[in-house]
Give the backbone structure.
Amino acid sequence: MRVESREKQPYDMTHALRVFLADTTNPYFNLATEDWIFHDMDPQTTVLFLWRNEPSIIVGRGQNVWSECNLEQVKKDQVHVVRRHSGGGAVYQDLGNTCFTFMGSRDPNRPTKELYSRNNKILIESLADLGIQAQASGRNDIIVEREGQPFKVSGSAFKESRDRCFHHGTMLMDVDLTRLSTYLTPDSQKLKAKGIKSVKSRVLNLTELQPSMDHQSFVSALTERFFAHYGQRCEIERLNETSLKTIETLSNYYEKLKSWDWVYGKTPHFQHTLSERFEWGGCELHLDTSQGVITQAKLYTDSLYPEVISAAAKHLQGQLYTPSGVEEAMRAHMEEQAEHAERLESLYTWISAQL
């Protein structure tokens, strides 16, 4: 049955529509799909993409992964860390979080805020169809009121090029908020970092307002509102990892997003100061890191073997800011000072655990 637009819209309705639904919860695939839509899709096509991720930390393009995340806990719990191409802050996502992506042509005769306002209107009307009253806050968030207080239920980020506009965000259905606070709270290390910091907001799961709310009901409501707004329908196209075999550019985007160089190597410059006391003496280590590589290291110690211990700075410099990089430095250092292997192993094991 054709869904008619409920009001006359002041927009060009001649563009073709495409709606994609991910059948996978692989975050690298889903963000690669966004890149494929943004870079390779016909800009005259209006696109809606809906998806969910298994537990993941998604950081903005300009953010410092180490200062945004408790990486030790993230690695322990096998949570994915993914860097997106758009700006904005770090977010935690799991299967209780529905992600949406809009892409449309950019009209130089209209301010782009109209596109974002239009998408927010579709989102808010979808929530209303499910019994939840919400409103836009600025152009980035959607909020609801509970006991007279505003709570964020959706956040967005934006990206534009010469001929297209991209708007994506999250809708909190039933996210594990305890994990959110655990993973997005870095441990108490002395770390001075450059990069865009996340802004903390009061958030609320929509299931607390409407227990029947879930991913599928929201997907259905949003696609119907999307069709109604544009006064036309299209077939919903389903995507999964098998698409990587048939869409070469999608596969290329996927491999890039999975790479260490993109996730960690794009991190801005930061400084990390560590201190510890061992059986053989105290140690204070200062690391300067840029693009995920230790560019400078200084080590101070009151050990009875200061020259041996301090030489760690030389071996750390130029290594990746990762446990594997520290291990490589330890291997070279121990080849030079084999008689101090036990002391050096304790030093490098401690450094590795701090990254």
Summary: Residues 16-263 form a domain with the BirA Bifunctional Protein; domain 2 fold (CATH 3.30.930.10). Residues 1-13, 187-191 have pLDDT under 50 and may be disordered. DSSP finds twelve helices and 15 strands in the chain. The two ends are 56 Å apart (CA to CA).
